[in-house]
Amino acid sequence: MKNKYLCSIIKRNIPKKKKEGKKNNCIYNNNNNNNNNNNNNNNNNNNNNNNNNNNNNNNNNNNNNNNNNNNNNNNNNNYYNGIQKNNNTFSCFEGMMDIKLTLLIKILILISFFNFNQSKLLIGNKNYRIDDNNVNYSITNDDGDLNQFATSGKVIVNINENGINSSKEFQCTQGLKTSFNVLFTCQISTIELTNINSTFILSTTSTNNVMETYRFQINLFYFEDAIQNDQNFIINGKAFLTMNQSLLNFKNNVNGKPFKIFKITDTQIIINGVETDITSTFMEYTFMYGGENIATISLTIEPSISSTTPNYLINDGDNIIINTIGLSTSDKSDIEVFILRPDNQWISLDFSMTTNNQIQLDNSTIYNYYGERLLRIHLIASDIYSNNYGVIGFAKPILTNIAQNFTSLEVVVDCNYLNNTAYPTFLRGFVVIPMAPISILPTRLIFSEPQMVRGYGYLQCNSSKSEPFKRFFQVMPDLSSWNSIPRKGGVFKFSGKYLLPLNENNEKAYTIDLVIINEFSIPCDNITILHYWGNQEYNASCIVSKYSEPIVKSIFITGYLTDSLSHIQKNPFTYLPPSVYYSTSTFYGTPSEVIIYGSSFCMDPNVTIGGEDCILRLSDYENDRIYCSFESNIQGLTITHTINITCGNQYGFGDVFIYATDECLISKNKTGLICSGNGVCDDSIRKCICNEDYFGLDCSINNNNNGSTIPPIIDNTTSIIDINNSKFEIGLVQIREIEFIDEKVIKTFNLTGGGIWNLEDINQEKTNYIFNTTLDNQSILKVHLTINSDSKLSKQYNFYGDNITILPNSVKYRIEITNWTFNTSLNSIELIFQSKLSVDQCSDSETLIGKNSVQMYGDSIRSMELTLTNGQTLIGTFSNRMKLDNRIVKSLVKILDEQSIGNAPTIATNTTKSSENIKTSIQNVFTIISINYFKEIAIVDPNFGVLIDNDINGSGGNNILDECGKVIGKTKEKFSNWKIALIVVFSFGGISLIVVAIIVYKTRNRNSVIVNGVKLKMNKENK
Known about the structure:
It is built from 4 helices and 80 strands. It is mainly β.
């Protein structure tokens, strides 16, 4: 009976079309069969061969694909939308079922016929917006007859109530119900959502009072409202952060463009309206989640300014584009654009609009605005204003006044400008370098004293500038003093106010011209500031490179501005008068051309020398030379004559003309014969051409053995000639300044000893040396030494018109003195040379008498000879001129006593003797070169040399013994077989010569002469 009951129960749920199916169901055990109440499918029999398999079928349709096999002895759990659902199962034992089934199994069998396969249960519209209205849910099951069950539903929502997170149930009312569908209406009030994820619970009760529960995930959204905030749209609500943002979408019903979500918070969804390009004042959009429409929202769009281009700072020439939301080109006639003026009045502006949501303002419309300004839009028909403002800042300042405080010299500028902290404003126009203010007030900027240049002042911020202010500082250069310049041109120096030559654009602010009588002008170029003294006072200079006659009378200043020129004339201007520095020489009585050197020569000067005309041949004023023909007929052979040059009403002079030295005339002093009878006079140069074996100015020195010369050795600035047992040393020992009134020495600097001189340069052949030293008074001495290496021939050396004969192997000194600061311009300095002769002789030498002579040329020594009986001769020859700065002046040579030497040091001497009976005889000649006041440089250019006849094998004459009596040769004449000729050539002025402590010891069987403080007889001749 139990088996029959079971089969009958099953039979109630199995179609009667195929009895085979009933037989099979009773034979096979361990199968759970959930069958359709209306249709049987024979294919279900195939599942009975497998143990522990679950076959899940829909309530309404047979589906062969549900014949899934599961070999595991486990129950299947099925999920739908993330919610777990339970399957009820039962088993039939293999073979005939035991009639002793327990009541529990019967109940399970009955339940299995009245349960749903939850995988076939569907809930529609899972996403809803809570808005105090009914929320409808629909449950469908295509495989079952929902009419067999009693159903109920409820919703569980996650909320925050009184600060506590909890869940709240809302009961739903069942609506229409069919076999396949049941509707529920849920009244869910506005609540504080904490999560959009909620649960709908379906409860079913079968006719046998079997209850079952089914859970479905749903989403509940709470929207408070939707608003426009400038260019964004904001949806206010709850629990937005619990959404899956990838499922969220907003459909724009205006132009179909999707909204871009700008930001999501728990209570707001912010949508960017700019990228959506809303061009209408009314808009609908649909809120969608997971593909379901949640809500359609309508919104009236207010016009909004999203941005401006440029973004904020407006410079000169910029057009403004106002980017908007909600405006189209079709709305142009309904649109007004306003700007807020500084007086807080809104003023309408002209605009153009060729693109949706873009309004363009031309720069001419906004040119006169300054500072930070507001823009807004007005819709005329609806009288709606934009819900925000566009903010722009005009870079251009508005300048109202410029003035200067003449006490503090500060410049005060009244103006309107943009925030100077963020956008600095600079003063320009009449300053070369833009100036930042030192004080900033709302409508006033104060600047420290500028260096002003001709121009109009204006203010600049960024790349914008104010209008130039033309009522202040159109400054013109004002010359207060200036110098004169040479006629050929040169550096024109001047002083005055407002002399900056170039404006801020590197353009000329003014020009200077020298204007002559016929209005022809000569430009002064390259205006340069030399010094700024403050209060607009300058020293400046420019270059004049032309000359024209008649001469300049005025200085003409032209000031430049962009819109006008201004002129100032300054009188009088004068050229420097002619200056005479030096000239070439002529021989007395011989008409010749004279070249005069100087400056500021005119084109047609009048020239006289010593009061006699020098006929002009050429005025080379550009090279500062005048060429004229002179008869050379004025008296005064050895004195200086004045050269006068007259240019118009200006004249200049210089005591610089000196007749060339007539050495032929001097050569008659000794014997009354020209060239001492040992040569002939070359009339072209008035010098003696000596016969063979004769030397000297007057050919009086016999060198009949044709000896050779020995080149000097340089030791610092000392020249050394060492021959057999004699040594000649020439060098600088001291420089000192002499006070004019009582001729006292007030400054002294010794030039001997180690560490004084620095070797600056030397050539490879060791014939050119340069030494320098800096004295304690910061004066600089530089010595150039050049060795004339010609060992046989004399050379002629021209020093500014004076020809000097230089013997072979001479040393030429060029001494430059710079940066000497005289105590007064009346003082002079003395440069002291020492010429030193050292001779080793036996201590018992006897004394012989020597001779001396001095050749005078006017009041100056031209030549001096000291000759010993053994043939040793010291000769000094001196020029009659020297150069100071750019002047050639007459020199003077005189003999001083021993006391005038003072404490001058001497050249260090090596006194090592070859034997005990040898003594060293020393002869010193101190040459004092007196140099008068100069400003920049003094140049001394002497020459020293020694001529030696060392042919000790001559025939005839007396025996020549060494210092201790040994015969080393014979003489031909009364002189010894070797002669020492020391020539000293000085190209300087004010020369003093003194001979001190001349001691020559006797060689064996010979006498020697001792000269101590000797006073030499002078033969003077003036013509």
